[in-house]
Amino acid sequence: MSDKPFPLTLRDLEGLTAQYPTPFYLYDERGIREHARRFTRAFASRFPLFREYFAVKACPNPFILKILAAEGFGADCSSLPEIILAEKAGITGERIMFTSNETPEREYVYANLKDATINLDDITHIDYLEKAIGGLPELICFRYNPGPLKEGNALIGKPEEAKYGLTRPQILEAYADAAKRGSKRFGLHTMVASNELNPDYFVETAVLLFELAAEIKQKTGCAVEFVNMGGGIGIPYKPGQKAVDYDYVARGIREAYDRIMVPAGLDPVAIYFECGRPVTGPYGWLVTRAIHEKHIYREYVGLDASMADLMRPGMYGAYHHVSVVGKENAPHDRVYDVVGSLCENCDKFAVQRQLPAIEKGDFVVIHDAGAHGRAMGFNYNAKLRAGELLLREDGKIVEIRRRETEDDYFATLDFKKLGGFTV
């Protein structure tokens, strides 16, 4: 029996797919809400000014964002359309953290008009932002890149090789400069890991930021009012992996706060996170059907979904658990490559995976796809992206994004001009 449950039965899926053919994404509202409350409770009980800014890039659907807004979440946005999505869900003003990089002028202008918190990624962006909006906002934040002082992880790489953030000398200069130009409120941010399961990593990150905040105050006189730990909290994609213990992390951060921030005269300071993956990832599934089988040098199962629907396994070699609905307790005595139909050999959901015998027509579910799944979909090979369904707390299932059609794919082309185009 897998410890990766799926909320629908075979009979449920047979009825559901009569209206919504596979492939599609399914999200569990109850699971998302319960996780949001557990996450908030762990940190807010120790930091009354705590807020989670959900990383919109992880699951950019306004229905999901509206659920999270009701749970008190803000939104971490990286583009103008992501800000609009947050606003449509009722998240506005400083509850939007605009953390972008190489940002076009118009996006800074829009973020400022909407009173979003602007988090600058480079020291040269101070001039750029000032010219774009006619001065610096009262509240400004800077993203710190610790370089070799902090190890990254396999997914995000070494901080000193990343394009993000300011160096330590630059960040001290940036706060002093922003204060001279009129900013009066300040925040501090970093993001140095992705999908990390070691809870001590986040406590160590807090220590790094608290020590920097104390130095910023001492050397520039600027007192930060919030410290944003970024995201990076991972999820146990593989059965048997242990999820991050939020209470353990919150206790460790509080101890560091009392040891560093309080003596520095920086209490109270708000603590923020901007996680996406743990909030929605475990509560989303890509639901597909097996439509082909192939017997050559390996055994293959072909699905009606492809890497265009979920790119993480093909792009990163990432593990996603695979189950066959109705065969959860059957012997896993076959070894398959589970693949899609793209003209790319990396279009594989699982490689040499032990699974039960799969027949054409079986429902194959890809687990932990609720973050960086549909969001990273694409149209290579003219593939049409899957729709999204939401399992409500009352058991009803509603469509929250329809699947793409051929008309959607062709919408940006003007075929009328084609007739007059000579070659």
Annotated CATH architecture of the largest domain: Alpha-Beta Barrel
The name of the CATH topology of the largest domain is: TIM Barrel
Number of DSSP E strands = 17
CATH homology superfamily of the largest domain: Alanine racemase
Indicate the mean pLDDT: 96
Number of domains: 2
Residues in helices, as a percent range: 25-40%
User: What's the Cα radius of gyration?
Assistant: 23 Å
Helical/strand content category: alpha/beta
Q: Which parts are unreliable, with pLDDT below 50 for 5 consecutive residues or more?
A: none
Cα separation of the termini: 61 Å
**Helix and strand sequence:** HEHEHEHEHEHEHEHEHEHEEHEEEEEEHH
What is the overall silhouette? globular
Strand content: 15-25%
- What's the helix count? 13
Using the coordinates above, name the CATH class of the largest domain. Alpha Beta
> Sheet bearing the most strands, described?
9 strands, mixed
